[in-house]
Every structure is written in C-alpha cells, then in structure tokens.
Amino acid sequence: xxxxxTGVLFWxxxxxxxxxxxALAYTVFTALLIAISFIDLDHxxxxxxxxxxGIALGIAASFVIPRPWYDSLIGLFVGGxxxxxxxxxxxxxxxxxxxGGGDVKLMAMIGAFLGWKMVLLxxxxxxxxxxxxxxxMKLATGNEYIPFGPFLSVGALCALFFGExxxxxxxxxxxxxx
Length: 178
Fold this sequence. Notes:
82% helix, mainly alpha
C-alpha cells in the first residue's frame, strides 16, 4: 500500500511539475510525509530524525520552488507556531496533552516546504478531514486517541496539489466580480 501510494503521488508530482528541481523537492517532501504518516499511525510518534532534517530541506528547497525564500521561513514559524498554540490551549482546557511535539515539528516542516499561505490551508484541510474521520472512528471504535500527523500530511498534499485553485475559487466569493 505504501509503495503504491508513493508511486501514484510521485507520478502526479512529475506530471504536474515536469522534471524540475521543484518536482524533486516535492517528491522528497511527499516521501517524508508518507513515512511520517505511517510511523505515526503505527507508533503514535513523529520521529525527529525525519521532521527536523525535513525542516532544513524545506528551507533549502525554497531556492528552487517558484516563490520567495522568506515565504518558507514565515511558513515554518506560522505552521509550527499555530500548532504549538492550539496544543497549549488544548492542554489547558482538557488537562492532558492535546497535540504532541512531533505535530509542531511536522507543521514547521510543512510550512518550510509550502510557505505560509499553504500552511494555513493545510491546517484547514487537516482539521476538516481529521474531524470527519475522527468522529467516525470514535463512533465506530470508541477510541479517542487518533494521531493527527497523517491528517496534517493529507492536508499538506491537498494544499500542494489543489491549494492555489482552492484559494482562487474561495476568493470569488469574497471579491465580487464586475
């Protein structure tokens, strides 16, 4: 399953970005997301050995991805910072860990690769998908502990593949034409 998913996603990246440095950066990013997701599903942990080098790779990739390099730095802090704030507030409210440190580093990595706009969309997509699947799993199994890393990864891939189109579509509702 992992191999098939990886192959399909790599094919889509090359199909979309051709054989460019950006495509190479996004395949590395996708490989990291896949590995992190399946490890988090199996062991409820996001290994620093993947996320921390991923942050550095995301910053390095910002020089070959067609957007300003500082967008990656802002994305790193926005992504990691927002999840840290949500986790801290959740801990205050629920009196238990609401978000692990691995999620913070994963979102910092996602922000480094995608920039601040797409990291905001990542959180939106991940929260929406996570809520739907999380509620269904809670009702089906009664298990309240579901790792959020895979949802962050899926949200990041949605932002990478569909984010710009989604933003353009959404802005048509905010800014009337004519």
